[in-house]
Every structure is written in C-alpha cells, then in structure tokens.
Amino acid sequence: MSRYNKPQDKTWKDILSHALMVVLATFIIVWFLPRGERSIMHFEVNKPWPYGQFIAPYDFPILKSEAEVKHERDSLRRLYEPYFELQPRIEQQQVDAFRTAYRAHFSGVLPGSYRTYIETHLHTVYKRGIIDPADLERLQKEHQESIHIYHATEATSRQVSQLFTQLSAYEYIVNDAKNYHLEEQMLKRLDLNLYLKSNIVFDEEKSRTLWEDMEKTLAPSSGMVVAGQSIIDRGDIVTEETEQILNSFNHEQSMRDEGTTSSDFTILLGQTLYVLIIMLCMVGYLNLFRQDYVNDLRYVLLLLALGLSFPLMALFLVRHMLLSVYLIPFAMLPIFIRVFMDSRTAFFVHVGTVMLSAVALRYPFEFISTQLVAGLVAIYSLRDLSERSQIFRTAILVTLSLLVCYMSIDLLQGRTLFSDDVSQLADRRIYLHMIISGLLLLFAYPLMYLLERIFGFTSNVTLVELSNVNRELLRRLSQQAPGTFQHSMMVSNLAAEVANKIGAKAQLVRTGALYHDIGKLEDPEYFTENQLGGVNPHNFLTCKESASIILRHVTDGLELADRYHLPRIIRDFIATHHGKGVAKYFYITQKNEHPDEPVNIADYTYAGPNPSTTEQAILMMVDAVEASARSLSEYTEESIGALVDKIIDGQMADGFFKDCPITFADVQTTKKVLKEKLVTIYHTRVSYPTLKTEAQPAKNTDEGTYYKGSTSK
Q1: Is residue 308 within 8 Å of residue 26, measured between CB atoms?
Q2: Which one, 134, 572, 696, 713, has the greatest CB density within 10 A?
Q3: Cα 521-527-533 angle, rounded to 5 deg
Q4: Do 663 and 501 touch, CB atoms closer than 8 A?
C-alpha cells in the first residue's frame, strides 16, 4: 500500500462535503460550456476539410455572403429616396408676417422694390424647400442624393443639393440683391431670419415603410442545396464557394436548434454527464491512491482552484471567440501540482483538465495531443524544483515539445510551414501562440510563491532558501549555540541520506532538521553540546526544574518559528522531533533519588504530537541516534549498531510511529544507513608514532608522518 494512501473511515459529513465539491465544480464548468452549437462545424478557407464526407441532411438555401448582401443593399440605397412632407402654410405664414412687419416699420423708409424683391425670393426658397440642418446632415452622412417631397396626393423627387437651410436661404437672398442693385445693409435691417422656417419635414414612418418594402425585394439566398447532395469530402480544400455553403448549413442548423427545448436539454445532459465522469475519475483516483490529499482541505482547494481555472479560461475564450486556446499555458498546472504534490497526481489532473477544456472545441485532436505531451515534458523536466533556472529550462522544453508535436500533426495532414501552395500552408499563428504560452510559463515562479501564501504550501525552492545557513535564525544558532548548530547540521545530512534511500522528501527533512532545535537559543548553556569548561548549570537545579527547561526548547522553538515566519511544515518538525517522549534522564534520576515520593510523569513529558509523516519520523530517529552516539565510550561497529537498534526499537515500542506512514522496511533501511554513516563518522583515528631521535627523518611522506594502521577494522 502506498505511504500516501493511509485508509481512514469516512464520515457522512466527509462524503457529503466531497460530493458537494464535485457537484459545484461540475455546475461551474457546465455553466460556461457553449450550447446550441451541436452541429456547427469549424473550418478555414484554403485549408483541408478536417471532417469526413459531408452530405446535406436536408434542403437548405445557400445564403449570400456579407459582401454580396452589402453590395445589393448599397445598390438599393442609391435608389432609395426618403419621404419629406411639404407644408405650404409655413410659406404663407412667413410671407404674411413679413408684409405686416414691412407696412408697420419700413413702408415709408424703403422703396417698394425691396418689398417686391423679398417676397419674390421668399417664394423661391420655399418652393425649393427649406430643410432642418439636422435632417440635412443625416442625409449627407448617408450619402443620400435625392428625396421624395410630397403634399396631399402629389409627390416629386428633388436633389438634396437643391435644398436650402435657414442659413443658406438667408445668404442666397442677401447675396442675390447685388443683381437687382439693392443695398445689402438695407436688407439686413429687415431681419430676414425671422421669416425663414423649415417647410419640409422628415416623415419617418413613410420612409421606414418604403425601405422595408425595398429590402423585401432582396433575395437572402443565391441557390439551394438538396438533401443528399455531397458538399465536400475529407482532405478537400475548402474554397470560398464551399465556405458559403457550409456557413449556410451552420446558420440553418442554428435556426433549427434555436428554441427547441428537447435539443437544448439533450446537449445540457450530455455536457453534464461528460464533465461529471471526468470529475468522478479524478475523485476516484484521489480516494484510491492519494488519501492524504483528500483528508487535507488545502490540497482539495488547490486542486479545485487549478482544475477549474484553466478550463474556465479556455471555455471563456472559445465562447466569446477571443484569443486562441493555445495561448493558455496549460503546462503550468502540472508544474504547480508536481511541486506541491507528486508526479502521478500532476499528470492525472492535467489529463482531466485538458479533457474538460477540449469539450468546447470542435476539432480537439491537436489540442489534446499537444497539451498532454507538453504536460508530460513539464513533469519530467521538473522532478525536483530547487532553482529558478529550472523553470526557464522547463519553459524551453515545453515550448519545443508543443511546436514539434503540432508540426508532426501538420505534416501528417499534408501541411507545411513553408509552401507556395496556399492550400498546403500550415497556420503559423498557432506556432506563435505556442511560443507565447511558453513565455507565460516563466510566470510560474512568482505565481508559485502566491500559491504558497494562499494555501500554506512550501515548495522545494522555499526549502532550499530556508536551508541557507546565512539566514538570520541559523546564523544566530551557529553563534549563540554552536554545539546545537553542529548537531543540527549532522542530523540534517544524516536525515537527508536516509530520506534518499527510502524515497522520502530529502530536501524537506534536511531543512526541518536544521531548525528542529532552534528553541535551544533561549537557554543554550543548559544543553550539553553547548557547555564549556565542564560547568553544568543543571547541578544547581532540581530534576523537575531541569526537565522543564529541556522540555521548553520545543515550545520556545515554535515561538521563534512564528516570530521568523517559518512555514507550518517546518514548525511541525520542531513540534514532533521528540513526539510525546519523556526526558528519561531527569525522570529516572528523580525516581531514584526520591523513591518514596510520587513523580508526575507529565512534568517530564514533551507536549508532542508524535510524528505524522515519514519525514518527521526520520528526523526523530536520526536526532535521537546522533545525540546518543556522542555519549559512547568507544566507537565500534558493534557499539554503534547496538545503540542504533536500541534507540529506534525503543521508539517503535513506545508507539511514536503509529500515526505516520513509515513501514518496517523503511525503519530497517534507516537503521542500516545510520550504522554505516556513524561508523564512518566516528571511526577510530590512527595514532601518530613518536620519533626515536630528534635528528631521525620521518618516513614516507609529504606530511612528515607515517600511519601505523587503522584500528577501526
């Protein structure tokens, strides 16, 4: 059984919460899926037909192209003359007003020729027509050359250029006075603007009716396709004529599907089942093989967020016909899941995500194949992310895999990147989009930090940064508690070696080991490895007081971890490296010195908890063994082996590893690695002989000494 799949009893609450998440995710994706496009086909002019032979399933008209319709409408527009109503009473009212004003104010001032001139010219401009400036501007904007002017039962056509506005009528009357030897200044005294009003008014209803009648004469189609007629076969080049027929079929199919409730329900049901099946497959995988992810809300939320975001982006682009789906860096999803989880989960979720994204595409073969290959390359190339440069390398490899895979499909279909024959030329825009998506993969590094902060994960990059001994907390440890620092370094190296051997996370346990004893910074002198000159402050304390200080280094370490914002996964190493163990030295000493007094074992017990992961169990074993190895009187294979067996077997007997997925085989491997490494580290040094005489030269060597031989054998 996998170490990641420790079975747990499911409560009804767990089952309902997981079912609710599946239903919610399915609802969100189905909501964004396009509908009403069941038979709509997608194709490109001068490219091979991507489907099989297409035979018309029913009769349908061949619609005219937009260019043809526009040309015919423009021709009609040139014949179209909007209706304007002539209002003769306006002329009569304004002429009468002028006569009244003239008799009242100018009859004895101006000669009668002025009156005759004005009345004649008022009749002229009103006969040609005075139009409102707004109506004239609209006619000019629509390039209308003539209009219909009607009154009662009479209607005449008139050029728009012949019409007057109030301003142009005034200028015409004033400027024409020179031909009659009249003074312009005298005319201006008459305030002619007062008698110039629009006498032709736009009749919107009659004009609209006329245009609608004319539009009815336009035939929307240029022919018919008969049911059973073969339109195009697979591999044929889509010509402009064929494109018009296929577009006509798409339009006809959309019209037939529109408003048919049964068809919409069928499509919705199919989409729901499709999405639900994929979601259930992913949930089934997690429950069967990755129970630890299912039991951790952080992992569930991360999978939901990533698993929904990429399909929704793809569906949004397809539904609104915006950019190409190849611009979306789908390989970023397996990168994130590989970094925070594992490779199998990354690939499985990537497959499901690509399948969900492809449901809206009408020709998804190229999309699915290229994205699956890109996801595999991303996972293979990023097995252990520890440097920024690895993201750059992965982006290059993913981009190359996308380009090569898509090029192979183009070649299979007889298309090339360079060809004089347009029908054989591949769509180069797709390749450009893939390159852009590869560049977008570089944003995985900053986004990874964002995901860490949101979901509380810790990537290998962060672990590597935390393991830098120049960081403030580790530097303080090396300066204020050098013995503890050396112990932590030793434990870190040993634990990483063990993790590599049993397939655990080496970088995680290495970093956790560096910080597991930082609590000793608060009272470094109370720990043996930091004591100098043989002075032991515990000699002046009771066993209970000494045990309290020793136990406190765990809680002090957790406080320091919070103060320095260490990730939770590192804080867990601090809390569990002694588990719920007992400070046996002080506990046993207290019982021996005061046999008649009751001893509360809780005063000598660490708060815990016990290890819950393989890495935490490794640290507990290595920490206890390395610390105890320093107390051996002699370092031989037998003594070291006995020490390792005694300590680890004692920990197992005390039940420290009941809550973590470590196996007996892992424990045996751990013992073997520790024995080999400690024998190497603590092997007996060779003794250096003394010279017989001061003047006798040393044998052998560059160092001036010779080895008698190692006694470690």
Answers
A1: no
A2: 572
A3: 110
A4: no
Helix (H, G, I), strand (E, B) or coil at 238: coil
Residue 185, exposed/middle/buried by CB under 10 A (0-12, 13-18, 19+)?
exposed
* CB-count exposure of residue 282 (10 Å: 0-12, 13-18, 19+): buried
* DSSP character at residue 50: -
Q: What pLDDT is stored for residue 376 in this prediction?
A: 94
pTM: 0.63
Confidence of residue 698 (pLDDT cuts 50, 70, 90): very low
- Please state, in angstroms and rounded to a whole number, the distance separating the CA atoms of residues 527 and 477: 13
Tell which residue, 610, 300, 612, has the closest CA to residue 456: 300
Look up residue 528 and give its amino acid: T
SS3 state at 237: strand
Torsion angles phi and psi, residue 384, rounded to 5: -145, 90
Q: Is the pLDDT of residue 408 over 70?
A: yes
Tell me the per-residue pLDDT of 101-117, one tens digit each, with 9 for 90 and over.
888 888 877 888 888 88
Q: Helix 388-412 to helix 428-440 angle, to the nearest 10 degrees?
A: 160
Q: According to the CATH classification, is domain 478-681 in 1.10.3210?
A: yes
Query: Strand 54-55 and strand 230-232: pairing?
Result: antiparallel
> For residues 306 and 337, is the Cβ–Cβ distance under 8 A?
yes
Adjacency order of strands within the sheet including 146-151:
154-159, 146-151, 83-86, 200-202
pLDDT band at 262 (very low <50, low <70, confident <90, very high): low
259 to 36, 372, 380: CA distances (angstroms): 9, 38, 49
Q: Are 354 and 371 in contact (CB under 8 A)?
A: yes
Alpha helical stretches, state H, 655-707: 664-681
DSSP 359: T
Helices and strands of the chain, counted as H and E runs = 28, 8
pLDDT, mean of residues 40-60: 72
| Contacts of range 478-481, beta carbons closer than 8 Å, 24 or more positions apart | 480/521, 480/524, 481/520, 481/521, 481/524, 481/527, 481/529, 481/530
| 146-151 and 83-86 strand pairing | parallel
* Residues 188-222 pLDDT 10s: 888 888 889 999 999 989 999 988 888 888 888 88
Q: Is the pLDDT of residue 464 over 60?
A: yes
- What are the residue ranges spanned by the domains of the chain? 12-36+262-455, 73-215, 478-681
Looking at residue 700, its pLDDT comes to 37
User: Would you say residue 353 has pLDDT above 70?
Assistant: yes
Q: Count CB-CB contacts under 10 A for residue 310.
A: 22
CA-CA distance, 222 to 209, in Å (whole number)?
25
Query: What's the 3-state SS for 174-219?
Result: HHHHHHHCCCHHHHHCCCHHHHCCCCEEECHHHHHHHHHHHHCCCC
Hunting for tokens 């006619």 — which residue is that? 139
- Which segments of 479-561 are extended strands (E)? none
Tokens 């007992």 belong to 582
495 vs 364: which has the higher pLDDT: 495
Distance CA 457, CA 706 (A): 55
Residue 98: count of CB within 10 angstroms of its CB: 19
Backbone angles phi, psi at 91, to 5 degrees: -65, -45
Name the 3-class secondary structure at 35: coil
Q: Which residue has the tokens 């299979």?
A: 412
Question: Looking at 25-39, 64-78, 602-616, 656-670, which range is the least confident one?
Answer: 25-39
Residue 48 DSSP symbol: B
d(CA 245, CA 64): 9
> Using CA atoms, how far apart are residues 550 and 527, in angstroms rounded to an integer?
8
Tokens for 559, please give them: 């406080």
CA–CA distance, 428 with 436 (Å, rounded to integer) = 13
